[in-house]
Amino acid sequence: MNSSHLFQPNRALGYVSNHIPPNVRFIDQRRENVVITCVGRSFHVYGCNSFRLIRTGRIHPADITAIAADGFLTYVAAGNLIYGWRSSVELRKVYRGHEKPVRLLLPFAKHLISIDEGSLLKIWIVATQELYLEIPFAKDEFEISAIVHPASYKNKILLGSTQGGLQLWNLKSCKLVHTFAGFDSKVLQLEQAPAIDVIAVGLHSGKIVLLNIQYEEVVIEVHQDWGPVTAISFRTDGTSIMATASSNGQVVFWDLEEKTILSTLMAHDDSVTGLQFLPNEPLLVTSSPDNSLKMWIFDLSDGGARLLRFREGHAAPPTCIRYHGASGRNIVSSGEDSSLRIFSTVTETLNCSMGKASYNRKASKKQKKKSTEDPFRMPPINYFTTEVTRDKEWDSIAALHQGLVQVTTWSYDKRRMGDLHLVPEAFQNKQHNKDITIMASCLCLSHCGNFVTIGYSSGHVERFNIQSGIHRASYGSPSAHKDYIRGLSSDNLNQIIVSGAADGQLKFWNFKQPNSTVIKTPIDTIDLSEPITLIRTHRESAIACVALDDFSVVLVDLDSRVVVRRFEGHRGTVIDACFSPDSRWLITTAQDCVVKVWDIPSSYLIDHFSVSHMCTSLTMSPTGDFLATAHVDYRGINLWANKSLFTNVTLRGLNPDSEAPLLDLPTTICDEQQNGTGLLSASPKRMETEELEDAFEEINLEYTSPPQLSSELITMSKVAISRWQNLLNLDIIKKRNRPRQALKKPKSAPFFLPTVAGLDFEFDLQAEMGDKSSAVGGAFGEGESRIIDTKQVDHLTPFGKLLNATVKTEEYDKAIDYLMKLGPSMIDHEIRNLTPFNSGSGSLPVMGAFMRMVIYMFDQRKEFELAQSYLSLFLKLHGRAVVENEQLSQLLPAIEEAQKTGWSLLENKLLYGLGVVSNLRNYSG
Question: Which in 497, 508, 612, 625 has the greatest CB count within 10 A?
Answer without folding.
Answer: 497
